[in-house]
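User: Okay, second chain of the day. Same drill as before: sequence in, structure tokens out.
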Amino acid sequence: MKSLLVACFICACYTANAQQHATSFTQCQLAVDEILAMQSFDIDEPISEDARYIFFEMYEELNLIYQTDINDPALIGLVDDFNETLDKADDINLNVSMFQGDIAHVESLNI
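Assistant: Same drill. Structure tokens below.
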């Protein structure tokens, strides 16, 4: 049981770290806190928490898209998920201009 808790903790730490920062796959190389600082709202406003999770999702989904082979059938679902996350960002008027290169890449996949 103890080893299971340790494994879960390690996975949670890895996942949290992977979502908060850019990887070599994404064109946007900013940390989530830097992206939040570029938004039209103050980082202390309640909307900031929603925005933080949306940016985590964007990084996670982009990393999966970049790592998935173009012929993999799972890519369609990954692109759909990313587009849904972009819709969430649009719903709360987030500035996603720093992701334009990544968004253009996803659009170029023609899925």
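The helical segments are 2-20, 32-37, 47-67, 74-91, 100-108.

User: Thanks, on to the next one.
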